[in-house]
């Protein structure tokens, strides 16, 4: 054995030792009792745990996971789901009067569900929408917002960061319900008395519920699962799962698709070429490398990857977007919600993504958070959103002519 091999051997032994020590610490961190008994250390807590055997214990993150699974959604995905939840509640110990009342309310409110097995046409309308995020009720994000998009048209949302563009897109999907909008009703009452004419203006301020409509019907009347099957969405950073590329493209589809259809969609999305360059092609596993963020596991996993090789491929931002576009093409949605990528992509990737987006936008209602002038130019309607309000509305040409906020955005090239 030469000195080089010996040094490598010693360093690797130390690294493996550290990795195992870190792993043991991690394991003891993960084990903790649900009640007051927090495991100060594995050994010292052992006796207490034995005494409190009957008390529930949770395994780290799984406790949070079950909390999430148990959560009742304020926005029911469909009636059958809520009926199932109701049955579960009745059979569980958690059946309180509140829970039962809550479920019955939701069940009765969704009596008028619209059958979206029929294709929607794709018109979108916002009427008097006010909105605050439940986690920040003090901050008004959208204020009395009203606009509409006809089927098959492109509506571009532009404006400064934090203006509320993504919130508008989220409301189209009914990720949240809007608050009540405030509107002002004016009644002009004229009185004439003798020679003097008196004018009384009475101002009544009332509240009108903000409504998001699709095809003229309140979003709350739709079965969300069926509606979402007809709305495509491509975000700036699409979420892919640690599954094969094929499974990621066909994720969430309600109908069967052949491999030929998947390939055709990938070709339209400019994804086929890079997929075919991988050894496993459409069966390539997408990896997320989440372990790299965890310092305790880093060395151990790194060593594992060095010894046995990494299964799967980590996709770049542009590649992920093209997979998401292929997914949207297969859904063949009537409404497409897009968040254009910004400067995070290199110019080649940006070009390929843009080309794919241009193809997928044809013949659908598109609501796009636009960052590029080329997208805004082809939009039928441009909304400039700032501080939760639409401050300008029109086509690219008319807004440039108006020389207002939009013209400034363009001149400062803030769309890019
Ligand atoms: N989940 C959330 N909870 C609380 N506040 C939020 C949440 N998401 C966004 N906000 C706030 O709502 C406001 C509007 O955010 P939104 O993301 O809609 O703006 P945006 O115009 O899309 O911005 P950007 O162009 O930077 O994405 C911001 O002040 C933001 O801090």
Could you describe the 3D structure shown?
Among the domains are: 79-112; 124-152 and 164-219, no CATH class. Helices cover 41% and strands 21% of the residues. It has 16 helices and 14 strands. The protein has a 6-stranded mixed sheet, with helices on both faces. A 4-stranded antiparallel sheet has the order 4-3-8-9, with helices on one face. Strands 1-2 form a two-stranded antiparallel sheet. Helix 4 (79-91) runs antiparallel to helix 5 and helix 9 packs across helix 12 (317-331). The chain starts with a helix and ends in a 5-residue tail after the last helix. Bound molecules: adenosine-5'-triphosphate. Adenosine-5'-triphosphate binds next to helix 6.
Explain briefly what this protein structure is.
By secondary structure, the protein is α/β, with parallel strands linked by helices. 41% of the residues lie in helices and 21% in strands. It contains 16 helices and 14 strands.
């Amino acid at each position: 054995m030469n000195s080089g091999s010996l040094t490598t051997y010693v360093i690797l032994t130390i690294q493996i030792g550290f990795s195992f020590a870190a792993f043991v610490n991690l394991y003891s961190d993960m084990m903790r009792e649900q009640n007051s008994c927090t495991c100060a250390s594995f050994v010292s807590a052992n006796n207490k745990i034995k005494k409190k055997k009957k008390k529930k214990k949770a395994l780290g993150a799984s406790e949070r996971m079950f909390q999430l699974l148990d959560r009742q959604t304020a926005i029911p995905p469909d009636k059958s789901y809520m009926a199932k939840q109701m049955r579960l509640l009745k059979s569980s110990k958690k059946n309180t009067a509140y829970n039962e009342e809550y479920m019955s309310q939701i069940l009765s409110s969704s009596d008028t569900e619209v059958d979206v097995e029929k294709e929607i046409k794709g018109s979108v309308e916002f009427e008097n929408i006010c909105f605050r995020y439940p986690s920040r009720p003090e901050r008004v994000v959208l204020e009395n917002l009203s606009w509409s998009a006809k089927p098959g048209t492109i509506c571009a949302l532009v404006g400064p960061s934090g203006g509320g563009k993504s919130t508008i897109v989220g409301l189209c999907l009914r990720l949240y319900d809007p608050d009540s909008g405030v509107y002002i009703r004016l009644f002009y009452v004229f009185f004439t008395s003798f020679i003097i004419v008196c004018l009384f203006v009475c101002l009544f301020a009332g509240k009108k519920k903000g409504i998001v409509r699709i095809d003229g019907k309140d979003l709350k009347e739709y079965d969300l699962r069926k509606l979402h099957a007809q709305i495509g969405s491509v975000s700036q950073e699409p979420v892919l799962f640690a599954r094969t590329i094929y499974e990621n493209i066909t994720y969430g589809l309600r109908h069967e698709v052949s491999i030929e259809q998947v390939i055709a969609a990938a070709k339209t999305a400019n994804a086929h070429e890079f997929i075919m360059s991988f050894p496993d092609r459409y069966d390539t596993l997408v990896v997320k490398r989440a372990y790299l963020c965890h310092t305790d596991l880093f060395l151990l996993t790194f060593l594992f990857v060095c010894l046995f090789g990494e299964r799967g491929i980590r996709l770049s931002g542009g590649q992920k977007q093209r997979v998401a576009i292929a997914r949207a093409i297969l859904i063949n949605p009537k409404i497409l919600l897009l968040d254009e990528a910004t400067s995070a992509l290199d110019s080649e990737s940006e070009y390929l993504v843009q080309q794919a987006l241009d193809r997928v936008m044809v013949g659908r209602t598109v609501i796009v958070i636009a960052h590029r002038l080329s997208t805004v130019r082809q939009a039928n309607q441009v909304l400039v959103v700032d501080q939760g309000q639409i401050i300008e509305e029109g086509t690219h040409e008319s807004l440039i002519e108006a020389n207002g906020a939009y013209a400034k955005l363009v001149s400062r090239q803030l769309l890019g």
